[in-house]
Design brief:
about 35% helix, Endo/exonu/phosph_ase_sf, Endonuclease/exonuclease/phosphatase domain-containing protein, three-stranded antiparallel beta sheet
């Protein structure tokens, strides 16, 4: 917790020992409190020895551009500048807005029939191509805000390349079948001791083994295709 009730930092285990650093904020409703809030947040970030931030998200209670409000109007420039100073310091940008500069996405509807995009996700530029299929939707909690959504997709685990896998390779099929039968025997032999062995571990080992066999087969097939044909005279 960086600022109680206002800002919390999350560090999530990602893939390949990487961590995803996320800062979730709920900015003050009073615009005059914003400059102090963003400065305090920056100081709290430094005081906690936090370095790289991947995502800044939440309810910002301001918009940066008139297009993000209807009826359109510009928010207090001092407030906007305070938020942009923090963005610049942390190397963040409004990824959705940069990708869709002329589109509008409203997440808040007031009783006065006005709408605005108060809820946003800022990210590092390096994550721009990992964020796609943006959407906003109602949450399960009763609120007049909508939640902004986007899958965050990074380089993942190896998958069998479509079109390259020799599905009719009998040797590979036999090896996978043999590994599967071994899995069945091991599952049947499981005892109540789940520390030294359990179904989840066996299943993970099974997937690793068949993936290794598939990779090996693909490598052999690729090497064979790349070999020059013998000249016949």
């Amino acid at each position: 917790m960086l600022i109680p009730g206002r800002a919390i930092h999350l560090s999530i285990e990602w893939h390949n020992d990487h961590k995803l650093s996320i800062l979730n904020v709920y900015a003050p409703n009073n615009p005059s409190a914003h400059p102090t809030f963003w400065k305090d947040l920056h100081q709290a970030w430094i005081s906690n020895f936090l370095l790289k931030l991947d995502l800044l998200l939440g309810d910002f209670n301001i918009t940066e551009d008139p297009i993000n409000r209807t009826p359109a109007h510009l928010d207090n420039e001092n407030v906007i500048e305070a938020l942009r100073d923090l963005q610049h310091t942390l190397g963040l940008k409004d990824t959705w807005h940069h990708s869709n500069p002329t589109e509008r996405l409203f997440t808040y509807m007031s009783n006065a029939n006005s709408m605005s995009q108060l809820d946003r996700i800022y990210s590092q530029s390096t994550h721009e191509h990992s964020l796609s299929r943006w959407d906003h939707t109602h949450t399960s909690i009763s609120t007049n805000h909508k939640m902004v959504l986007t899958p965050f997709i990074r380089k993942g685990r190896w998958t069998w390349p479509l079109g390259l896998m020799p599905v009719h390779d009998h040797n590979l099929t036999n090896k996978i079948t043999k590994i599967g039968l071994e899995l069945q025997r091991n599952l049947s032999a499981l005892t109540e001791d789940r520390v030294t062995g359990n179904a989840q571990q066996l299943w993970e080992q099974f997937k690793t083994k068949i993936s290794d066999e598939a990779k090996k087969k693909n490598s052999e097939s690729s090497n064979h295709k790349n070999q020059p044909e013998d000249d016949h005279h």
